[in-house]
Amino acid sequence: MEQTDRMDCREGRDIRAGKKRFSKNAALENASWESGVRKVTPYTPGEQPRRAGIIKLNTNECPYPPSPQVKRLAAEFETDILRLYPDPEASLLVKSIAEHFGVGEDQVFVGVGSDDVLAMAFLTFFNTDKPILFPDITYSFYDVWAQLFGIPYSRPALDEDFRLVKEDYLVPNGGIVIANPNAPTGICEPMTVIEEIIAKNPGSIVIIDEAYVDFGGMSAIPLVEKYDNLLVVQTFSKSRAMAGMRIGFAVGSPKAIRYLRDVKFSFNSYTMDAPTIAWGAASMADDAYFRETVEKVAGTREYLKKELSSLGFSFPDSRTNFVFASHEKVPAEEIFLALKEAGIYVRYFPGERTGNHLRITVGTKEQTDALLAFLRNYLK
Ligand SMILES: *Cc1c(COP(=O)(O)O)cnc(C)c1O
Question: 3-class SS at 28?
Answer without folding.
Answer: helix
